[in-house]
């Protein structure tokens, strides 16, 4: 591909050369017609006469005497994956400059430690299914319930403890620190579009998880998405018989992550982090019910309005077509 300021495209270069060689036009006339210099026309004509293409030649030199040896590059990558050290630490081990180490790591996409898995030291392999519904990720996020009056994150520890003790249906003995219990957010996120369906419940049993999946499949179907596979961790709810029976009835293939490898289910894990920052702890809620009531509105914003970097800074719904209320 020619550069941005090129006077002639490859097609016009060929035309210039053919006028000079095949039709016998004078080089000066061809140069005046195409408004280029005399040497430019002659160079194209000489290349055409020699049978060379009209595309730009590579500026890469034919020989690089000081090129880093493949053995050094291989050892640099191996040390990076094994030791997780930076260019300044790897350079003395390899006997090369830190800038050379950085160039090697950048060419191998290992210049950031985020590109290397902390647990195994292996490069992070990112993937994305080619159409909505091909795979959905499911998981549960556990968070503490909010007492009436607000939680300790916004009102402080002392007032937070008072609010917990004053919450109805809890013992009011000042020496007793009541346990408010937990909320469990069940989420189902589409691998391709990142569109998500979530519900809040008071437990994470197999029955609750299965009911959420059934409702999520129906919700996706209403938006033209047919769920084909579901990926979950190895929690008890997802290993239960009721879960597998429901998936069989829905025609969904069940897939599990490798044990102790939550990174495989990273899309829903990352969503739950966004959920915590954008909804669960985004502002001071005066009760748990107030927070749960705000979930639906935040999910609408996330799916239909919030830019997502994995979707080209467009909202997840932009990857779905002909969805009712898509642009509302």
TrEMBL record:
Pfam families: HTH_28, rve_3. Residues 156-178 are annotated as: Disordered. It comes from Kocuria marina subsp. indica. It comes from the Bacteria. Residues 143-323 form the Integrase catalytic domain. GO terms for biological process: DNA integration. Residues 158-171 have a biased composition (Basic and acidic residues). This is IS481 family transposase. InterPro entries: Homeodomain-like_sf (IPR009057), InsJ-like_HTH (IPR055247), Integrase_cat-core (IPR001584), IS481-like_transpos (IPR047656), RNaseH-like_sf (IPR012337), RNaseH_sf (IPR036397). One of its GO terms (molecular function) is nucleic acid binding.
């Amino acid at each position: 591909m020619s550069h941005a300021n090129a006077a002639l495209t490859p097609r016009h270069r060929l035309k210039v050369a053919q006028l000079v060689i095949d039709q016998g036009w004078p080089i000066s006339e061809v140069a005046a017609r195409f408004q280029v210099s005399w040497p430019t026309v002659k160079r194209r004509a000489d290349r055409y006469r020699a049978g060379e293409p009209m595309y730009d030649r590579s500026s890469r030199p034919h020989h690089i005497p000081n090129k880093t040896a493949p053995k050094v590059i291989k050892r640099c990558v191996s040390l990076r994956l094994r030791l997780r050290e930076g260019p300044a630490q790897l350079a003395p081990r390899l006997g090369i400059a830190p800038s050379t180490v950085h160039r090697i790591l950048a060419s191998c996409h290992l210049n950031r430690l985020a590109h290397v898995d902390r647990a195994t030291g292996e490069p992070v392999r990112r993937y994305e299914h080619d159409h909505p519904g091909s795979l959905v990720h499911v998981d549960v996020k556990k968070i503490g319930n909010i007492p009436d009056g607000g939680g300790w994150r916004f009102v402080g520890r002392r007032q937070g403890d008072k609010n917990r003790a004053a919450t109805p249906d809890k013992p009011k003995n000042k020496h007793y620190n009541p346990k408010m219990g937990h909320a469990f957010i069940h989420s189902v996120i589409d691998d391709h579009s990142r569109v998500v369906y979530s519900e809040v419940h008071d437990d994470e049993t197999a029955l609750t998880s299965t009911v959420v999946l059934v409702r999520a499949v129906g919700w996706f179907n209403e938006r033209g998405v047919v769920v084909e596979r579901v990926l979950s961790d190895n929690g008890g709810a997802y290993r239960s018989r009721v879960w597998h029976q429901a998936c069989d009835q829905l025609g969904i293939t069940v897939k599990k992550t490798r044990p102790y490898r939550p990174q495989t289910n990273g899309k829903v894990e990352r969503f739950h982090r966004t959920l915590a920052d954008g909804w669960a702890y985004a502002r001071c809620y005066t009760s748990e019910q107030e927070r749960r009531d705000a979930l639906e509105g935040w999910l609408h914003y996330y799916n239909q309005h919030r830019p997502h970097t994995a979707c080209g800074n467009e909202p997840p719904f932009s990857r779905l077509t002909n969805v009712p209320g898509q642009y509302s």
